[in-house]
Automatic annotation (TrEMBL), chain A:
The modification 4-aspartylphosphate is found at D52. GO terms for biological process: phosphorelay signal transduction system. Transmembrane segments: none annotated. Keywords: DNA-binding, Phosphoprotein, Transcription, Transcription regulation, Two-component regulatory system. It comes from Colwellia psychrerythraea (Vibrio psychroerythus). GO terms for molecular function: DNA binding. Residues 3-119 form the Response regulatory domain. This is Response regulator. It holds the Pfam family Response_reg. The lineage of its organism: Bacteria, Pseudomonadati, Pseudomonadota, Gammaproteobacteria, Alteromonadales.
UniProtKB/TrEMBL annotation, chain B:
Residues 339-550 form the Histidine kinase domain. This is Chemotaxis protein CheA. It comes from the Bacteria. InterPro entries: Bact_Chemotaxis_CheA, CheA-like_dim, CheA-like_homodim_sf, CheW-like_dom_sf, CheW-lke_dom, HATPase_C_sf, HATPase_dom, His_kinase_dom. Signal peptide: none annotated. It is an enzyme of class 2 (transferase).
Amino acid sequence: MTKVLVVDDSNSIRDMVSFTLKSAGYQTVEAKDGQDGLSKAKINNFDLVISDVNMPNMDGISLCTELRKLASFKFTPILMLTTESSSEMKIRGKSAGATGWLVKPFNPEKLLATIKRVVK
Amino acid sequence: MSVDLSQFIPSFLEESFEGLALMESGLLDLKRGDNETIHSIFRAAHSIKGGAGTFGFDNVTEFTHLVETLLDEMRDGRREVTSKDTEILLDAVDCMRLLIEAARDNQDYDHDKVAKTSSRLSETLGDEQSTDSENESNSNIEKKDACGYNIKFIPEHSLAKTGNDPIFLFSALAELGELTICANTEELPALMDIDAQELYLSWQLTLITDVEEAEVIEIFEWVEDECLLTLEPITNTSDDEFTQNLSEGVNSIISEPSVQPQLPSKAANQISLASTKVEHEPDAVIEEKSKAAKGKVKADLGSIRVGVDKVDSLINLVGELVITQSMLSELGNDFDMTKVERLTNGLEQLLQNTKELQESVMRIRMLPISFAFNRFPRLVHDLAIKTGKTMELVINGEQTELDKTVMEQIGDPLVHLVRNAADHGIESKEIRLANGKPEKGTISLDAYHQGGNIVIEIKDDGAGINRTSVLDKAIDKGLIDANATLTDSQVYDLLFEPGFSTAAEVTDISGRGVGMDVVKRNIQALGGRIQVESTLGKGSTFKVNLPLTLAILDGQLVKVGTETYIIPLISIVESLQIDNNLINRVSGDMVLYRLRDDNVPVLPIYQLFNLETECTEIDKALLVVVEADGQKVGLMVDDLLAQQQVVIKSLNDNYQQVAGISGATILGDGSVAMILDIPGMINMALEQAQRAQRVKTDGNSSVAAELCL
């Protein structure tokens, strides 16, 4: 089963993403910020990470950088949830090793369709 | 695949309001160069914007975008944090709240205010156009009759390192139409030289589809910086061209067989289904949402967020209760006298469990008073600007817990008291300096527990209450007699008379004289009381005493005849044995009791409620002195029983309202006891006295009237 780590400081967004993925048959683990996400990533393997960018404690970009340092996350797709589709944001994400980005707002259908580009 | 988003809206709303509160308090604390605070304000705005977009509150998204942009400039240091900007942002927070509330209640909002703030924000931003549309214009679509595309995809060797895998891209492409894939292996080095982490292949793809170019490019969105991508529309799909395209990859290994299995037609079907659904979804979702939002209004008001620890402790206690219960019922199966000790132990256990359970359940309704206090920093900030005075707010004891219902109802009275303190209490800068006080006035809010009550103090270090001007005003308004002599506290009580206002000028902050009487009424309705202390030139303190909860009351059980009554402990001043020498019969039934400096009218409860009792002689009875509305009376009772917490049952729900009774409770022995409504009883006594006067016209009417003033 495809296992996804969902990192977002907003309960509602996290719940929404997680619920959508679960109802499509994915297994999910939720984390409330980058720090939390990183510690969960260290004890679990994931097939995909979906993370917000702006979060307290550790933001999504730093999380991405940190994850890429872990051997088990070297090739894992990491998608950033962002509100802006500016190219600056994308470059920052890319240089941290992010696979792609999902621009908020997105609906559940779009979410499921887009992650197909990186996982089964 | 459709997901009902409306289920996440309540939690989004809750989060948003928390975010707004955080923004507000952050903005109020904001000092230049305080990066951490700006970051957290930005994050809150950012989350609200993202959520609002996802859940379809587009006007919130649009408005918040401006706020976010401004905050972003501050965060990056591109903009100095000025007090003007902070003011605009505070207004913007109000607007966001307005918009979100309107979205929640599905109601209209103050368009003017939002538009005004929005244009102020844009002005501040210098009307910069966002660069968001840049992407759309780049990929400008000139698709006409293309029925497919030839795609050349040459990824950089490091593509896999960002977690991208071409195979998923191809399967996504395959869902758009019929895909043929040729891999080019030219770049593949000798086996010895291969770095397993690098990608050496490139691909020539042919996609037969009727989707637009943008949609195809979108699939490569995440890799476009890491590959060479060319897209040529195929205008007519002659088979020749198709085969020609295929044959272009002369040197390539046809990897079709290996890729094809990745493209199950089932998945393709699913997606095409999903994509048709997308078209219709938004309307449906929004409709449902508004319905849900409507229903939610009520639900929101009635919900409490409870910490998991509190729930856990409850479950734990219920578990213990169940154990005790099964222990007791086992004991009852074949009970004999040898087991009495075990029974008493069991019952004691039960008592303990019940008590703890009660406390835990009560704790669920308790919230820290910061919920009521957190709006005051903003209020005082705004008041300072409006009045041109400098003042600060000091809050203490915001973690003091209070029943949710009480909290909801105490908010408005507190606002009024704080406004009063700012408007009437604190003097202008010049006057303060002239009086040798610090330029900055201080209003402090303190909350603490005292016995079974919570005390909230609203203190200011302002001018204090001017006794003479209060008296003059009261005489002027005909509230008191010109030559009445009143104690300080009686004078202060005049402030709570309807239609009383001492401000020389009526301002729009306070001073219309509607309010203080309402404040007092609201506090009394909660079973609380308000006291005023003031020193001229030093400041005033308004002390609000409230019961911790409305569901349970600390009561004094008293016996009158065969009945047991409960007097709320909060209203009892003292209980005493009657000293015959201090009794003063003024007229007929009226009895005054000399209590130090006061003459306290005595109300025999048995007379009030028409009860039979042997104890009709005042000198044999006990006197419970209670206070309500600043009026003390002595309730004559046969005996004092225990003090205990009683659960209040509404008489209204179970029977009907009865004068002099505020509710009922069930005592340990199963009997029902009435809870006395002290202000109501005083009114009753007043009416009875007046009726008595009318009967006995020769009675000393003036005395009786004064007694019950």
